[in-house]
Design a protein that fits this description.
Number of domains: 3
Shape: elongated
Strand order of the largest sheet: 1-12-11-6-5-2-3-4
CATH class of the largest domain: Alpha Beta
Strand content: 5-15%
CATH topology of the largest domain: Rossmann fold
Structural class: alpha/beta
CATH architecture of the largest domain: 3-Layer(aba) Sandwich
Largest sheet: 8 strands, mixed
Number of strands: 12
Helix content: 40-55%
Distance between the termini: 27 Å
Number of helices: 17
Length: about 450
């Protein structure tokens, strides 16, 4: 069961001659160095030797123990202010090969590692869970969840570290883009990171007050047609023109790409690339450019002259200096990880709830069908999502029920009300638009 516990008031005997290793996997996120710092300080104060492992599992999987460094308090005392990772990071996936996993265990054993703290997202968490299976009681493992996507299944909607900083910086960038859109009378289609879930896109769009935000979850597991995406965006542009505004900013979650109908995608992309964990490399697919070209073509056919600019926000968020929330959050996570291991714990993710340590065993968050860590998606039925939706400019039921309004929208679109309803009417049937609080 999920377990909330306190590690205060318990005796922490000094662990002389024992060692703890720390490594980082997956993409960068603000706050990684904060975990490294606090875990190192607490481990040394508890009598442990601390070994920093460079480049995630990449060298361990090759059987090399050369890329490690003994960490001291002097090394880490001020690294928490920095973005990025002083131990660097890697997406190398040792679970793809039993031999690679054996090499990882062998090298850690040769280094006389008793405890391991891994810092990473769902893929790194999965590797940690498999390491527990293979190493048994030989190495105790704790995983500190990290991702700007905020898509790991932490109870009570607890945030993953890095998300708050990424959302804050992304919102600042989007606000600047919105001011540019107003000043130059143009539209921007902005794609933000978020491999499987739309938390970051929704957080950025809502915080900045973007015209609308589109996330993959709103299609409720159905294959996404590019025509559907373009209908949403074209409809928003037409509705804004009716309101006397020829500008706007649409935020799109990159995770939409994973659910796009593959036949549709093949019409725009020659080759699809995947990373070492089998994830689609979204950066190689220009989603914003694809929909920009299609929407612009449609509007031109209607006689509407609109400048649309595509923009990606992602890599510039990952290595930002952490904000105050993530500075404090990561310090407490690193401390808790060490205390959990020294109390005899292993095989779990480390989290906080209401400021208290919260331990999540790996087997409680595994998807029984895939064997991988579950993904936390945006809850479309939550009051939070419904409130976000109410501040977006989209076509909605009232636009089609009021005949005068429908006629005005059709006039802006250069078509008849019947033609407008035929193309866009289905968007108003989207149950996402139904607002009912508390239900």
């Amino acid at each position: 069961m999920l377990e909330e516990q306190s590690f205060f008031g318990t005796s922490q005997s000094r662990q002389s001659h024992k060692a703890i290793a720390i490594l980082v996997g997956g993409g960068p996120a603000p706050g990684i160095n904060g975990v490294i710092r606090s875990a190192t300080i607490e481990a040394i104060n508890s009598g442990l030797k601390v070994i920093g492992v460079y480049d995630g599992y990449s060298w361990l999987a090759k059987g090399s123990s050369a890329h490690v460094e003994r960490l001291t308090i002097d090394h880490v005392s001020r690294i928490h202010y920095r973005g990025g990772s002083v131990l660097r990071t890697s997406r190398v996936n040792p679970t793809k090969s039993p031999e690679s996993m054996r090499q990882v265990v062998r090298v850690l054993t040769e280094l006389e590692v008793d405890y391991l703290i891994s810092i990473g997202g769902d893929d790194t968490a999965y590797t940690a869970s498999q390491l527990v299976r293979m190493a048994g009681d030989q190495i105790q493992v704790a995983h500190v969840p990290k991702t700007i996507d905020n898509d790991l299944p932490l109870p009570g909607q607890m945030l993953t570290f890095g998300y708050q900083t990424a959302r804050e910086v992304g919102a600042q960038v989007t606000q600047n883009i919105m001011e540019d859109a107003f000043t130059t009378n143009r539209w921007y289609f902005v794609v933000t990171m978020g491999r499987k879930a739309g938390h970051l896109a929704l957080g950025i769009g809502n915080s900045a007050g973007a015209t609308l935000t589109i996330i993959g979850e709103e299609f409720r597991g159905q294959p996404i047609r590019i025509t559907h995406l373009c209908d949403i965006l074209e409809g928003a542009i037409i509705k804004r023109r009716l309101l006397g505004r020829d500008y706007g900013v649409a935020v799109l979650s990159e995770g939409i790409i994973e659910s796009i109908d593959q036949h549709d995608l093949s019409n725009y992309v020659d080759k699809v690339e995947y990373d070492a964990h089998g994830n689609l490399r979204y950066a190689e697919i220009a989603l914003a450019e694809i929909v920009k070209d299609e929407v612009r073509k449609r509007l031109k056919a209607r006689g509407i002259d609109v400048t649309i600019v595509n923009k990606n926000i992602g890599y510039e968020l990952r290595c930002q200096r952490p904000n105050a929330f993530d500075l404090e959050y990561t310090q407490n996570l690193g401390f808790t990880a060490v205390r959990f291991l020294l109390s005899g714990g292993s095989g779990a993710m480390i989290a906080l709830r209401d400021g208290s340590p919260f331990i999540i065993p790996f087997d409680q968050i595994m998807d029984p069908e895939t064997g991988k860590i579950k993904t936390r998606l945006v809850n479309l039925d939550s009051d939070y999502y419904r409130m976000c939706s109410e501040f977006m400019i989209r076509l909605e039921p009232s636009d089609f029920k009021d005949q005068k309004r429908l006629s005005r929208l059709a006039r802006v679109a250069g078509c008849t009300p019947e033609e407008f309803r035929a193309q866009f009417g289905y968007l108003a049937d989207d149950e996402r638009r139904s607002l009912s609080f508390g239900g």
